[in-house]
Amino acid sequence: MNIPEKSENELLAQLRQEGRNDPEAIYFHTPLCGTCALAERMLGIVLETGTAMPVTKVNINFAPVLRETWRISSVPCLVILENGRPARIEYALHSVVDLHRWLKR
Prior knowledge:
This protein is of the alpha+beta class and 105 residues long. Helix content is 36%, strand content 22%.
């Protein structure tokens, strides 16, 4: 499954909208990161089950505001948002089972 990608500005505009209460996840990556590619494939498997919250990916190289504000220190990084704010930040994306547990609705 293809994970939709947004720019930092698009994501910030989305997060500023009122009424954004549904949980969602932001997947931070870089294009040349092998571990990021593997994590993205695992996320795709989880999303294909249809039981996961929405996931959007963002290239960390072009997201300095979010990187600094949310103190993201490395990639891959999965940020689970509740009410538009980070509720959980995960760097070690070990397995599809872990991802499924974190992303279930």
